[in-house]
Design brief:
3 domains; about 240 residues; Arc Repressor Mutant, subunit A; mainly alpha
Amino acid sequence: MNTLSPLIAELKRSLKDAGRTYADVAVEIGLSTASVKRLFSAGSFSVRRLEQVCAIAGVSVAELAARAEDRASSTAKLTVAQEREIVSDPKLFLTTWLVLNRTPFEEIVRDYTLTEREVLRYLLRLDRLRVIELLPGNRVKLLVDRHFSWRPDGPVQVYLFERLLQEFFAARFAEPTDELYFHGGAVSEAALAQLRRAIRAAAGECVDIIERDRRTPARRGGAAFVLAVRPWNYSGFQRLRRP
């Protein structure tokens, strides 16, 4: 495997986040678009060329390497014991939710009724749980993947279903800022697999949008999205089906 592969994959993401295309790169470094595509495909970057493309993406080579290292060392799931401890304390769960959304220490203290000492105590617990690494200056390095998800039917997912999702779906989704699409039908196993892939792709794109938005100096408010698919028949209809 090309040792540059993780860097190149991260460079592609950085270009996408910056809204830059292969055509943009080609113009700025004096190559054809086809040559740039081959460059990425073969991974044949010189140090100078890597620095040039990083500049176009708005990152340094060091930043790119750090991101690639973070991704390689991150985890996509926590253990049941980790999740159980997180939901055992509402303030710890809140702190976890906020740090997973990259909320800085100062903003947590500013926006929530938690003292600096409390927030630090919860960050230390998350450090012990290996959810984060607490750095000097109360900065946080996440030890979970950017597409991290809770365990299916695990302690946090049960907590979400019992509390957050009931409140979330209690709304009528009638405001101009709201969106709700609900559709179903009889599908084959192959179509169900396609739906699952489409859901995963849509979820990844939504996460990417949130990641890119964090880098812009804009005023923010809370928002949430839910994507789900499963084999299901409405019980009210199912009762009327013939055996």
